[in-house]
Amino acid sequence: MKKLSARRRHPLAALVVLLLALACTGGLYAAFAPASKAQADETAQSLAIDEGKKLYAVGCASCHGTGGQGSTDGPSLVGVGAAAVDFQVGTGRMPAQQPGAQVPKKKVIYSQAEIDQLAAYIASLGAGPAVPSEEKYGPEGADIAKGGELFRTNCAQCHNFTGKGGALTHGKFAPTLEGVNPKHIYEAMQTGPQNMPSFPDTTLSEQNKKDIIAYLDAVNGDETVDPGGLSLGGLGPVSEGLFGWIFGLGACIAVAVWVAARTAKAKKS
């Protein structure tokens, strides 16, 4: 009887039961535990890419190719990054309404969620500039004076010294920067859309871009005052030269006619 009882109470029996219990507990936890944040983010990103691919196939593939490789009607989108998509689609420039010297800004037809999905898909085709966070283009820590200096050096040749825009060659133009979303200004500097050169961080640092945006906000704000009087639209030498030509030269002609008339009258008398 004692021998049979000893067989049933083997020293390893308790250890085996404990291991089985731990295995069952671990299996149940793995099956029902919530996914980690990294896994959740990866899943959400994958879903965004899938949805963006569907939107791309309908609205973009006819010009840019089925895989973003480009065609005769549109450039390659491989490596342009999410920031380029957010700018072009977020300002209504894309999808383009019709071909031309330059694609103008127009009404946005996609929601921000759809723009984010398109951006996620294009970013998956190749590395490129990402959509900036608000911290990068917000006013906190910006130097307006430095931004004005940088803008006049790098941007005023096309956009005018207060960002009012201006004409370029062959029907192209530099658009006005008044009322443009700061995020889109930052993205334009990152990606260089259409005729604009790009200004990566190696050329203009994140702080430099922030300073320029702060300057534009200051000169185009609601409380902006022109200390020199009438600004003539702030369009630069073309409008100012025209004003000087018409009124300045006209005044000179009027004075010359008046002097001649007075001189002739004096001689007669």
List the helices and strands and how they pair.
Layout: H1 2-8, H2 13-32, H3 37-59, H4 61-64, H5 81-90, H6 112-125, H7 134-137, H8 144-154, H9 156-159, E1 166-167, E2 173-174, H10 182-191, H11 206-219, H12 237-268
Antiparallel strand pairs: 1-2
Summarize the structure.
The chain has 269 residues and is mainly α. The protein is built from twelve helices and two strands, in the order αααααααααββααα.
| SSE ordering | HHHHHHHHHEEHHH
Which sequence of strands runs across the widest sheet? 1-2
CATH class of the domain at 41-131: Mainly Alpha
- The tally of helices reads 12
Beta content comes to under 5%
Distance between the termini: 160 Å
Proportion of helical residues: 55-70%
Describe the largest sheet: 2 strands, antiparallel
Overall structural class, as computed from helix and strand content, comes to mainly alpha
- Determine the CATH superfamily of the domain at 41-131: Cytochrome c-like domain
Quick one: overall form? elongated
CATH topology of the domain at 41-131: Cytochrome Bc1 Complex, Chain D, domain 2
CATH architecture of the domain at 41-131: Orthogonal Bundle
Radius of gyration: 33 Å
